[in-house]
Amino acid sequence: MSMKSPPSPSSWLSLARVFLPFAFGYFLSYIFRVVNAVIAPSLASDLGLDPSRLGLLTSAYFLTFAAFQLPLGLLLDRYGPRRIEAILLLFAAIGALVFARAESLTGLVLGRALIGLGVSACLMAAFKAFVLWFPPARLPFVNGLQMVSGGLGAMTATAPVAALLQVTDWRGVFTLLALLSLLAAVIVFSVVPERKHKEAAPDLHLQLRGIATVFGSPLFWRIAPWTIASQATFLSIQGLWAGPWLRDVASLDGPAAARVLLLIAILMVAGFFLFGVVSERLGRRGVPLMTVAAFGMGTFMLVQLLLALVGSRFSAPLWLLFGFFGTASILPYAVLSQSFGPRLAGRANTGLNLLVFVAAFAAQWGIGSVISLWPGTAAGTYAATGYRAGFGLMLALQSAACLWFLASGSQGRPIIRK
User: Fold this and answer.
1) pLDDT-derived band of residue 412, with 50, 70 and 90 as boundaries?
2) Which residues contact 253 (CB under 8 A, 6 or more apart)?
3) Which of 118, 219, 345, 380 has the highest Cβ tally under 10 A?
4) Is 300 helix (H, G, I), strand (E, B) or coil?
5) pLDDT tens digit sequence for 129-139
6) Is pTM beyond 0.70 here?
7) Can you tell me the distance from the alpha carbon of 400 to that of 319, in angstroms, rounded to the nearest whole number?
8) In the structure, how many helices (H) and strands (E) does the chain have?
9) Topology given in CATH for the domain delimited by 17-189+203-409
10) What ranges do the domains of the chain cover?
C-alpha cells in the first residue's frame, strides 16, 4: 500500500485527518467506559448481580485495557498509531456484540474484557499521533481537545442512552455500539495519514530498554502515584458508582440520575478543555504544567471530602465539581510527553496508563466489595454507609499519594517547566 502524503501540522486538513478520526474512537471508548452507570439497574435486575459482581463485571474493561498497555507502547512506537488503533477497534466491535448477546455473568465479563482490549489504544494512539504531528508546546491544548471528545462520549452515555432505553434495551444499545466501533476502525485506517520515518524502527531489545528508561525515571515515580490514585478514583466512580449513589443516597429515579450524570459529563468536558487552555497559557508565563495538575488534583480531593461530609445535601453542585476537577489528572500525561520526547512518548504514557487502569480495575471492583459489606435495603438499594466507606478509601489513597508527591519534591526531583 502506498503511503498517504502527510498534511501540514498546522492546517485544517491536519485537524480533519489526524485529530478527528482519533477523537471519534475516543468518543466511543468513553461511551463504553461509563455506560454501565446508566444501565446498571437493568443489568443487576436481569442477572441478579450484587454490588461486588456488578463492580467486577464493569471493571473487566479496565483489566484488559491495562494488560495491553505495555505491548501497546511498543506497537505504537514501532508500527504507528493508525494501524494499531484500527486493528484494536475491531476487537471492541466483537466485544460489544458478545456483550449484547450474553446470557450469563461470564459472557458479560468476556464481552466487557474484549471491549477494554479493543479501546485500549484510543487515547494513547491519539497522544502518539499528536507527538508526531504537532509541536510540543501545543500538546497540552491538543491533548485537552482529545479529552473533550471523550467527555462528549461520556455525555452521550448518560441521558441520551437513558432515552434510547425507552425504545430498546441494553442489548440494543451494545449492538449499535458494535456497529459504530466497526465504522471507527474503517475511518482510522482509511483517513489518518501515515507518517514516514527516516530512521528504521528500533529492535525489540532497544524498545525494552526504553521501557526500563521510563520506569527507572525519578520524575516518572514522583508523578505516577498521585496521578494513578486520582485517575482510578475518577474513572471508577464516574464510570459506575456515581449512578447507583444518586439512586441510593440521593433517592433519584433513573431519568433524574441520568440527567445529573449528563451534567457531570458536561463539566468533565469543560474541565478537559479549560485545563488544557489554562495550562498552555500559564506555561508561557513560566508556570510548570505539573503545578497546574497538582492544584486541580488537590481540589478534586477537597470536593470528595465535602461530598462525604454533606451526603445527599448539596450533592448536585459537588458532583459537578467532581466532574470538572477530576479531569486535572490527565495533565501529567503531557508532562511525560514533553519530558521523554517523541521517541519514548508512547512507552511513557502507556506505562502510566498501565498503572492507572490496573488501579481503576481494583478500585471499581473494590468499591463494590466494600459496599457489599453492608446489607442492602428491602427496596433493593445499597447502604449509604457502604458508599461512604468505599469512596473514603479512595480519598485516603489519594491523600497518601499527594504526600509522596510533596515529599519527593523536597528531595530535589524537579518538575518539568516545558
Assistant:
1) very low
2) 247
3) 118
4) helix
5) 887 877 776 77
6) yes
7) 23
8) 19, 0
9) Growth Hormone; Chain: A; (1.20.1250)
10) 17-189+203-409
